[in-house]
Amino acid sequence: QVRLAESGGGLVQPGGSLRLSCTAASGFTLDNYAIGWFRQAPGRDREGFSCISSSDGSTYYQDSVKGRFTISRDNAKNTVYLQMNSLKPEDTAVYSCAAGHGSSCHPPPVFGFWGQGTQVTVSS
Questions:
Q1: How far apart are CA 6 and CA 60, in angstroms?
Q2: pLDDT tens digit string along 1-31?
Q3: Cα–Cα dist 103/18, whole Å
Q4: Which residues contact 59 (CB under 8 A, 6 or more apart)?
């Protein structure tokens, strides 16, 4: 059962930027959930690379995206954002967001509600 929807993906040149949005379906509120961003490149396992808690807004980034990506949330809009700068070809993947059963990213929660993903392609 899809409760989240991602948007903002597309084709961008290396060094460019994109902002992804993760929006909750009607009747589903993100306020009390930690939200994670995941990506899956062709032929590779899905990896979680960023998370934002609901309790205090603390954030987590995998080293591969640290300093380039920023996760944020706007509870009034029931949306979580992922600002991606300095994109590289190796960032090409399907990006998905998920809501975790818990308010904190540490330890990682069980992510039970997922979106269907949005394609990000970084290529010249």
A1: 19
A2: 668 999 999 999 999 999 999 999 888 889 8
A3: 26
A4: 50, 51, 52, 53, 70, 71, 105
| Residues 17, 68: Cα–Cα separation, whole Å | 9
Burial of 74 (0-12, 13-18, 19+ CB in 10 A): exposed
Amino acid code (one letter) for 39: R
38/121 Cα distance (integer angstroms) = 15
- List pLDDT tens digits, range 36-64: 999 999 999 999 999 999 988 999 999 99
